[in-house]
Amino acid sequence: MSEALPTLAARIKGARRLTILTGAGVSAASGVPTFRGRDGLWRRYRPEDLATPDAFARDPRLVWEWYAWRRELIATCRPNAAHDVIAAWSRNPGCRVLTQNVDDLHLQAGTYELVRMHGSVWELSCWERCAPGTTPWRDTRVPMTNLPPRCPHCGCIARPAVVWFGEALRAQDVDAAVRATACDVFLTVGTSALVYPAAGLVHDARQQGAFTAEINLEDTPASAAVELALHGSAEQILPAIARLL
Ligand code: OAD
Q1: Last residue of some domain: 127, 162, 197?
Q2: What CATH number does residue 140 fall under?
Q3: Which among 96, 146, 206, 213 has the fewest CB atoms less than 10 Å away?
Q4: What is the pLDDT of residue 1?
Q5: Given ligand 1 and candidates 35, 86, 223, which is best to mutate, with the most ligand atoms within 8 Å of its CB?
Q6: Does 118 qualify as catalytic in the annotation?
Q7: Ligand 1 pocket: which of 66, 116, 196, 216 to mutate (most atoms <8 Å of CB)?
Q8: Whole domain around residue 152: which residue ranges?
């Protein structure tokens, strides 16, 4: 670790184009539960019951109760030092941030050029895909009453504007993410690197010649593929790197 921090800091300092991919681990210190960590959501709940189009078609109220509970929890969370460092770096030209997180914490920290690959829990869209309802609208009510909420355009059931298992990401987000793999340094932070297409980006970046690095509490499938795998928490390692710049 002692050599790794200055090495990564020097790479970031020298990079004209820096891309950062984040996952739930970046928000863990803010109190947002991860999915696959020790107290991860997928240890207590089954994704196929709560995070698929089939689950929603079967029982929209149940799915909404779970999202309403998560929204209440997330609403009390604030950005941590990892979000702050990423936000500061994002103000440099050539820096792009891709996140799988559906909380708003990167935005609250002031991150520029943010691609939200899995959407936002604070946005809704029309389940029936009525024309105006395909553009997500913001709904930050906490707590939510009268579940499931309705589309203000057609009156049908509304859904969380997040990407569920079995669904495609928005084309413009995929395009932006793929473009961002053309970079000098690609840093993957706090993600289990299991969910595609996000998990494939670090490999694409490396193939194109980027220096790749990972920050995570533990090894992931990406660890063996990156040039530098740093073990530790994002909220400690990122500020430590920032101090070396
Ligand atoms: P996961 O919960 O799968 O992984 C979180 C990762 O963060 C784990 O590898 C932890 O070791 C690491 N971690 C935890 N705390 C950390 C900290 N303080 N600093 C650094 N690393 C830490 O979350 P994601 O990889 O984001 O998708 O999950 C990807 C997608 O799977 C999510 O967007 C979600 C989920 O199902 C959908 O809901 C579609």
Answers
A1: 162
A2: 3.30.1600.10
A3: 146
A4: 61
A5: 35
A6: yes
A7: 216
A8: 33-76+119-162
